[in-house]
Design goal:
Elements lengths: L8 H19 L6 H20 L3 H8 L7 H8 L1 E6 L11 E8 L2 E8 L5 H6 L7 H16 L4 E7 L6 H5 L2 H14 L4 E10 H8 L3 E5 L3 E3 L3 H9 L5 H7 L4 H7 L4 E3 L10 H19 L4 H14 L6
Helix pairs in contact: 1-2, 6-8, 8-9, 10-11
């Protein structure tokens, strides 16, 4: 069943009427609904296009958090073959918030790392809503080191509201683990690609998103703190999250203009959750283009390209 956001109410009403007509036709074969369904479908499509043409940053935040939006596991199923997940940081424990492993993309070996939020109460609890603990980032470092040793490109799929802020995580060195993961991302001799598929929150995202190329899905968000966190700091009121989102420049178009990201992957009208196969195809094209662009670069060239890219951020602003 389709889940609707608050601002999608006009579309929800129209699609609800379509569902009612189809239900009526199923019980009474003599009723002809084709013409009315076609008319309502056209109106729903027009309303959806109109809404998504003028999304505010806060509305994009809601789309990025949509419960039916494709998650890490969906991208693995849609893009990666021979997937072999790897677990544990070899220091403390396994952290299911960050998933990592080896597989093939279009037949080429790749290492894939990313946050998994889960799509049910049980899986969300298992994956801690995509908020990683220190051992998750240490696992990411372990996989990156392995990929670097065997000359395998790294793909990161970023989707987290931030690293887990619990006492245990802090006691086990959360900040240090994030810093080490960021450091490892920067020093890799193999190309790494980061794609923000939903939320890119704070250091929890940066830890695996410091890449040779950083892309965002059209309705994803990427920021130093969540809008709720920003509102709490600025106004001591998390209810002003909408105001924070509208002023934080967290959308893909804003960040592309600032040079923080390198490109935007288009989403279908209505968001990735409405037509996940379209998003998979667009993401597949983006990954293939990245691998082609970096195929002939030496390890030194890969490091120098990444270094220059991050040094240049903020130097060409108007």
């Amino acid at each position: 069943m389709q889940s609707y956001l608050d601002f999608e109410k006009p579309v929800a009403d129209l699609e609800g009427k379509i569902a009612e007509l189809k239900s009526l036709a199923a019980t009474d074969q003599a009723v002809s609904i084709d013409e009315e369904v076609s008319r309502l479908s056209s109106r729903a499509d027009e309303a959806l296009i109109d809404i998504y043409k003028r999304l505010t940053p806060w509305q994009k935040t809601q789309v990025a958090r949509h419960p039916q939006r494709p998650h890490f596991s969906d991208y693995i199923k849609g893009l990666i073959t021979e997937w072999s997940p790897l677990a544990g940081d070899r220091k403390f424990a396994e952290d299911s918030a960050i998933q990592a492993g080896l597989g093939r993309f279009n037949g080429q070996p790749v290492a894939v790392i990313g946050q998994e939020k889960g799509n049910s109460t049980e899986t969300r609890l298992k994956h801690n809503f995509g908020m990683a603990r220190p051992e998750g980032y240490r696992k990411a470092v372990r996989i990156m080191e392995m990929a670097d040793r065997f000359n395998i490109p790294v793909i990161s799929l970023v989707d987290t509201s931030g690293a887990y802020p619990g006492i245990g995580a802090e006691e086990r060195g959360q900040a240090e683990a994030i810093a080490r993961s960021t450091e490892k991302s920067l020093e890799l001799g193999v190309p790494n690609l980061a794609i923000v598929i939903g939320e890119g929150g704070s250091g929890g995202a940066i830890a695996i998103a410091t890449a040779s190329r950083v892309l965002m899905l059209e309705h994803a968000i990427y920021s130093v703190i969540s809008p709720e966190g920003g509102a709490t700091i600025l106004w001591r009121d998390a209810a002003k999250a909408q105001d924070a989102a509208n002023n934080m420049k967290i959308t893909a178009s804003d960040l592309l203009g600032f040079g923080v990201i390198d490109g935007i992957i288009a989403e279908p009208t209505g968001g990735a959750h409405r037509h996940p196969e379209t998003v998979m195809n667009n993401t597949r094209s983006a990954i293939a283009g990245f691998l082609d662009d970096f195929a002939d670069k030496s390890r030194l060239e890969v490091r120098e390209h990444r270094r220059e890219k991050f040094i240049a951020i903020g130097t060409n602003l108007p």
